[in-house]
Prior knowledge:
The chain is of the alpha/beta class. The chain has helices spanning 2-13, 20-33, 36-41, 48-58, 67-72, 92-101, 105-114, 128-140, 156-167, 182-200; strands at residues 42-44, 61-64, 84-87, 120-124, 146-150, 171-175. It has a 6-stranded mixed β-sheet with strand order 1-6-5-4-2-3, with helices on both faces. α8 (128-140) packs parallel to α9. The radius of gyration is 16 Å and the shape is globular. The chain starts with a helix and ends with a helix.
Amino acid sequence: xxxxxxxxxxxxxxxxxxxxxxxxxxxxxxxxxxxxxxxxxxxxxxxxxxxxxxxxxxxxxxxxxxxxxxxxxxxxxxxxxxxxxxxxxxxxxxxxxxxxxxxxxxxxxxxxxxxxxxxxxxxxxxxxxxxxxxxxxxxxxxxxxxxxxxxxxxxxxxxxxxxxxxxxxxxxxxxxxxxxxxxxxxxxxxxxxxxxxxxxxx
Length: 202
């Protein structure tokens, strides 16, 4: 199965290999979801896991587009260096600004998240508009301290937006195609954090 994933990932994602950490993460996702197609849809940008490790070491922020994802990310896997999980989607200021500007709360929440100091992982599990906002912001400014994990599922527009993110130069982890959703996003984030935690403590 690992060989199949490596060949599949190399063909579709344009990366030369899946290292052992990535393989372990994909195996955990497949085991927990019972969905091999989900595991095989996941693309790792070459710097993404390094970015997340740095975030944990520097006490950075994991910022989600929904409280459902934020509440189910395993905070104990973040260690004791100050890394935290945040969600701004229900913040009263975000709600007010979204109404005033006639945009989605997810877009305003992205702006709030990007304003935080330190390295950030932007976790998008349900709002393609948040991905578009990240792409737009990247076109105007450097975002070397940002990694994006994008796994919304659904319609063709979501599939296309994820491909646009793949074509950007942002550090990314993406569930390509129609696969994804809130549950899949939580499973993927926790699998990544668990692998990093286990590697650091082995």
